[in-house]
């Protein structure tokens, strides 16, 4: 907790400084900021890499170098992410029935809450949709096919994904 005098002194100090402006009187340009997005692969506990193909289909693949298996994890806000395939440009999305698909643009269906589990794996639950009050998770079954979100639970190994940094 700061005192009133300290807060007032900070306001006076800020009021004396000239406002920062960028080109043409607009907001200041971001210089020297690091805006690179890290590229990852998501490896499921069922031994498949998450992949979004060119047609917007979601599947698991055993081959690491398959196009569509490299994804960017973009933070929407604290604990909420959007997953985008680098090769195809599709965002991972889940509809109200819990089916996974690739979306051309980032919609509310593309937002997932990311949680790091005790075993070091990450789980992704749809931020927008629930099934009977329970979260619906991103999941690949033992054959690499996506499971409907209503059939998934946080404890299922099919919902656990290990982030692998692409070098």
From TrEMBL:
GO molecular function annotation: growth factor activity
PANTHER family hit by this protein: FIBROBLAST GROWTH FACTOR
Pfam families (UniProt xref): FGF
Family classification: Belongs to the heparin-binding growth factors family.
TM spans (from-to): none
Keywords linked to the UniProt accession: Developmental protein, Differentiation, Mitogen
SUPFAM superfamilies given in the database record: Cytokine
PROSITE patterns: HBGF_FGF (PS00247)
InterPro entries: Fibroblast_GF_fam, IL1/FGF
Database matches in Gene3D superfamilies: 2.80.10.50
Protein name in UniProt: Fibroblast growth factor
GO BP: cell differentiation; positive regulation of cell division
